[in-house]
Amino acid sequence: MTREPLPTFPPGFLWGASASAFQTEGAPAADGKGPSGWDRFAAEPGRIKDGSDASRGTGFHDRYREDVALLAGLGADAFRFSVSWPRVVPGGSGAVNTAGLDFYDRLVDELCAQGITPAPTLYHWDTPAELDDAGGWLRRDTAYRFAEYAAVVAERLADRVPMWITLNEPAEVTLLGYALGEHAPGRKLLFDALPAAHHQLLAHGLSVQALRAAGASNIGIAVSHTPVWTAGESEGDRFGAELYDTISNWLFADPILTGAYPDENFAALMPGPVADDLKVISAPLDWYGVNYYNPTLVGAPATEALDSFAGFEMPAELPFGIREIEGYAKTDFGWPVVPDGLREMLTALSARFGDRLPPLYITENGCSYDGVHDRARIDYLDGHLRALHTAMAEGVDVRGYFTWSLTDNFEWIEGVSRRFGLVHVDHETLERTPKDSYRWYRDVIRASRR
User: Do 119 and 164 touch, CB atoms closer than 8 A?
Assistant: First the structure.
């Protein structure tokens, strides 16, 4: 099939790829890394669907130069990676592991040597196990410990890192880790998980302060967003969709961008001096990151088997139900491929926040497909870049795009069975093989610079 060339993106548009520490690095004992809550969770029998070993990752800790060379081969402008909190501060607070910091020092130097912007995320779900044992994000103290850790990283790297991300997807940590128990730390608290949301938001605000105090600039956050479609016309369907929209989209964006929760009922459920905390949470950002994969169809609670969240069975106590979206192609993960949902979400953000919305980056967008000859991934990325360009033509200020992910990795509870990478990883030998989509994305980046 012959495609029309992609439309032209503006000069200076940032092209990148992403990864995370837990999913790629591995955990060599000689480095002094402490255990994370995810290390412990993944080691519990039955937690990882394919039984694979989370501790290997993709061997990135030892093979980072190889992966930076792959980024250079793409012509990528930037690499979004994450710093492992327990690698830098093994106990979550207290003693700093100099060997862990040295690893990120070497990585940043390697990226800079190749002309690639380092864009570290300070938290991509790997809470130090000691903090998880003490309550994790349910405890206010965790937010302060996170800010201390952010300062440690910035003091070492701020002279060479021109782009910073505080947290990745606090909604998923809250929903999957604390409400539904499907991810670490495996808590099943339903709406009693809301303190985890507030304390992550507080950690974000405190870490913005800490980063700026350490000389860092160009600071943002990566937040997952999904257009919420209403499953039916009943009052229960409308209520369920509106509630889910509030929880998944605005419970995190509103405090960050407006200094208020989207509903005073949610504000009343949050712990601590909420009004004072919101002043910290809403510290001005230089940019705001959007992670987009697909829309979500939501209605009243239902009892049929399709009532699920990302493949997880929904508890009957919840006042909404997730439905399967029909009529679209599906990824190997079973997620619907809806490129225009990206445009829909970006224009919704622009309409809701107006001048309070800083410039945007797409900090994650990608899909799971098997195979090195991955035409389906090319089609997915092509469609989403066209939808992104349309949103920009409609006035949304988007400055760059990071695809998820550079390499196949350890996909949380799915293990190594889901492949999101532009580069195939043999999970036995850890050998890297660029896919057809790698070459396609390379050509997209090259064409954008002509």
Answer: yes
Q: Is 61 annotated as a binding residue?
A: no
440 belongs to an annotated ligand binding site: no
Q: Residue 133's Cα: distance from chain center in Å?
A: 23
Q: Extract the tokens encoding 294.
A: 């697909």
What is the residue-averaged pLDDT of the chain?
A: 96
| Pairing state between β 296-299 and 228-230 | parallel
Pairing of strands 308-309, 312-313: antiparallel
User: Are 368 and 411 a contacting pair, CB within 8 Å?
Assistant: yes
Judge whether 125 is annotated as a binding position. no
Residue from 303, 197, 316, 324 nearest 248 by CA = 197
Half-sphere exposure of 441 (CA within 13 A, CB side): 34
The total number of residues written for the chain in this structure: 450
CA atoms within 13 A on the CB side of 430: 16
Domains and CATH numbers, the chain: 14-295+327-448 (3.20.20.80)
pLDDT given for residue 311 in this prediction: 64
Residue 364 annotated in active site: yes
Task: Say if residue 199 carries a ligand binding annotation.
Answer: no
Q: Of these residues, 169, 172, 182, 344, which one is catalytic?
A: 169
Q: From CA 325, how far away is CA 294, in angstroms rounded?
A: 10
Assess contact for 122 and 164: CB atoms under 8 A. Answer: yes
Q: pLDDT grade, residue 310 (50/70/90)?
A: low
- Asked whether the beta carbons of 129 and 73 are under 8 A apart, the reply is no
Least Cα distance to 425 among 37, 113, 110, 19 occurs for: 19
Of the residues 130, 172, 182, 364, only one is catalytic, namely 364
Q: What's the N-to-C CA distance of the chain in angstroms?
A: 24
- Rounded Cα distance between 175 and 172, Å, is 5
Residue 223 to residue 192: CA distance in whole angstroms: 21
- Tens of pLDDT, residues 160-181: 999 999 999 999 999 999 999 9
Per-position DSSP letters for 113-154, written without gaps between them: HTT-EEEEEEESS--BHHHHHTTGGGSTHHHHHHHHHHHHHH
As a whole number of angstroms, the longest Cα–Cα distance in the chain is: 59
CA distances from 420 to 35, 236, 424 (A): 25, 36, 9
Task: Tell me the one-letter amino acid at 427.
Answer: H
